[in-house]
Amino acid sequence: MSNLRVIYSADRINERLQEVAAEIANDFVDRELVLVGMLKGAAFFLVDLARMLPREVDYEFVSVTSSIGDHGEVVSLTFATQVDVCDRHVLILKDVFHSGVTENYLITHLSQQNPASIGVAALIDKPQMRSVNLDARYAVFNDAPDGFLVGYGLGPSHGEHTNQPDLCIAEEE
Hints:
The protein is of the alpha/beta class. The protein is built from 3 helices and 9 strands.
């Protein structure tokens, strides 16, 4: 078991999500918007953000995995709901935006359907870790400390702490 150090309280997350939702709503007035959540980490982010947008919005989920192969990082789309983005504005929602490799792959994949625009919204943006030239159009937080993040949908594959309402750093006891 690990100790949790709260870095963003549920109230602070909610406050920042409201600010980002207002910015998105302003930027996409009278435009058809699709939120594409990258599973599993962005599920809470997508649900809360969609409910805060003062307009109709469509949403989809995808799962993109990456692994290290003989020739570098190998990325593959392992699950996608019926994502139709033709002539629609798309925001890819990502929990922690690190290297940008998986997001870049998904942008390339979805761009084949000719969306009106496509960008990334990150719960946590870590541009200093980027290995591709890709920026988050929106970031809820961009000052998260290094460490293993848990809570608000983030955590290990077996689910420990993922349903915590706060975003925390898991610290070994």
